[in-house]
Amino acid sequence: MNMVGHEAYKQTNILTADAKRLVLMCYEEAINNLRVAKENYLNKNYAAKGKAVQKALDIINELRVALDFEKGGDIAKNLDRLYIFLTRHILNADLKKDFRGFEQAASILSDLKSAWEQVFYGNAGSKDLNSSETQSFLIS
Q1: Block means of pLDDT (10 residues each) for the chain, length 140 residues?
Q2: Whole-number Å distance between alpha carbons of 68 and 80
Q3: If phi over 0 gives left and psi between -120 and 50 gives alpha, with beta otherwise, what is residue 97?
Q4: 5 domain-assigned
Q5: Domain with 132 in it: what CATH number?
Q6: How many domains, in total, are found in the chain?
Q7: Residue 4 lies in a domain
Q8: At 5, is the secondary structure helix, strand, or coil?
Q9: pLDDT tens by residue, 57-88
Q10: Is residue 29 in some structural domain?
């Protein structure tokens, strides 16, 4: 598939995804951009690294903006704090030229993505994870 076709397919996926899938797609893209940032850092392609870092930060910011504190209560507050931490961690890693910070942030995002997959699609096992409060605060 050529790049134009790939981008059109990706755009269609985004436009037709439900809110739960969009959240997971955000995590996937942030993780991917942090991996791209690390690769570009190691290859001394600093401009591309900078673009990938900025995309990851933009996605984390969008996840943060999407939080519904009224419906989400403490979960939304804790996610907000975690997104702030991730933003600072990525910025500090970039400033210190420490690509391990990108890996650590990607690992945290991967854990969050896995947790949301459990909440959204089953096998969570916990009544709290399946509560309407947990599922609705992020998807307003």
Answers
A1: 55 61 95 98 97 98 96 96 98 95 97 95 54 47
A2: 10
A3: left
A4: no
A5: 1.20.120.340
A6: 1
A7: no
A8: helix
A9: 999 999 999 999 999 999 999 999 999 999 99
A10: yes
